[in-house]
Structure formats: structure tokens, C-alpha cells
Amino acid sequence: MRFDEAYSGNVFIKSHPNFEESEAVIYGMPMDWTVSYRPGSRFGPARIREVSIGLEEYSPYLDRELEEVKYFDAGDIPLPFGNAQRSLDMIEEFVDRILTAGKFPLGLGGEHLVSWPVMKAVYKKYPDLAIIHMDAHTDLREHYEGEPLSHSTPIRKIAELIGPKNVYSFGIRSGMKEEFEWAKQNGMYIAKFEVLEPLKEVLPTLAGRPVYVTIDIDVLDPAHAPGTGTVDAGGITSKELLAAIHEIARSDVHVVGADLVEVAPVYDHSEQTANTASKLVREMLLGWVQKRK
Fold it and tell me: Cα–chain-centroid distance for residue 173?
């Protein structure tokens, strides 16, 4: 993909036309090759962009406007359908280029496996990296039905790469018993069911460290986000997730990149999920891109 010209499709509202002048880069990872339940998240990035036209450009939470942050929308990475390993390689190469250029990468998924090559690329630049992971699921499996490339494995992969004690999961309410036991035995932090209050306790311990944030939209209760591949009852509200984003923005952590994954528009004809995701992206841009300055 080229960075020397603007994406020709729908772009996220108020995107800057010039890559070089931008502080952050939005990019899509339209992959759902390994999902174990319902496919469709490969259409998430495009729909999040399309519905962003309905957003207000001003955030009353942060008292900032989108024009205050320059971000370039690079469009979707043209991933080869069905080829998981090649897709992951392409994502890592793409993010390497963004990081080399000194930009903040903000990815839109796509299934959660797409976060693995991004986190790996970020870790190469920031060896003291910590991960903040918000999700309904542990994603700590070594494989799913014998397949190590699965949307149920990305957090296990990054934990093994950077050390489990550097990974912090919030909102978890589903997973195999073995996954929870592995996390406990290896010193990985898991906050079951809740996000905001445990996040407030953890953030001071990460002050000054580079942090990558990965958010699976299914951390929200299905009442707030029905448009996802693996819905799971008992989740948090959209109000709590927004508050968590703002808590990170007010903290002393050094946010160096982020993604929002698993939006599957086909399962939500009201477009509630895509609209929520779009608002979350706005708050991430306004709250986190400034954290790297």
C-alpha cells in the first residue's frame, strides 16, 4: 500500500489528506479467516468509517475537536482472502512502516488475531511494552481445534513474547479453565467482568511505560454491541468503556498504539455497534494520540 496519496474510499471523518503531516494513521485489517463462530468482521473497518459521518467532531468528554489531531486514513490493507499467515505478515510489515515514520498506529479489525502482528511490530520498537487488553474472552489458547492461528490465541502469543506479567486483561468473562489457570500460574493480570475500577488500580503501576491498547468490541454487553462474531452476555456498558478510554487518556502511561476489533456489521441492522465503535475511535484519537507527545 502507498502512503503518498489519500485513500480513495470512504475515510474516517476529518481525516487529514497528507500522511507525512499526520500524527496518527488509521488503517483497516479486513480479516476473519480464523473465526470459530460467526464471520463478518472483515466488513467492520469499512462500516466504522462510513458511519463516522454521523459523529460530532467535538468531544464533550475531553473538550477537544477532531481538527486538533492530524490523522491519515490509509484505508484497508489488501489482505489475501483465506491466507492467514500471509495476511499476518502483511499487517506486521504495514505497521512497521507506520512506526518507522513515527506515527501512532490505530487499527480497525477484523478478527482479534489481527492484533497479534501489530503488537509484535510495536514490541520491536518498544521493548518495555505493556499490553492493555479489553475483551469478553481470554484469548489465551495455544490453538483452536489444533490450529495455532486463531482469533482465540492472540493474547497468549503476545504474552509469551513479552512476558505474561506485562499483559493486563480487563472485562474477561469467558474462557477455558486452563486459560485462567495459565494466567494465574504465570503472573498475568486478569480482571474478571469489570473494566473501569480495576483499570484505575493498574494504570499508576504503568506510569511512563509504553502501552498498546487492544479493544475487542465484545467486551461490551450484547445489548450495547450485538454486531460482533462471538456475543457474550454479562458485559460492560458503552458508558463504562468510554470512561475507561478517558481514564487512560488522563493517566501517565505512554500510549503508543491501539486497535478496535471484531465489529461485524451484518449482525446489527440498527448499526448501533458500528456507531458505537466510531465514537470510541474518536475518543481514542483525541485522548491517546496526544499521549505520545
Answer: 18
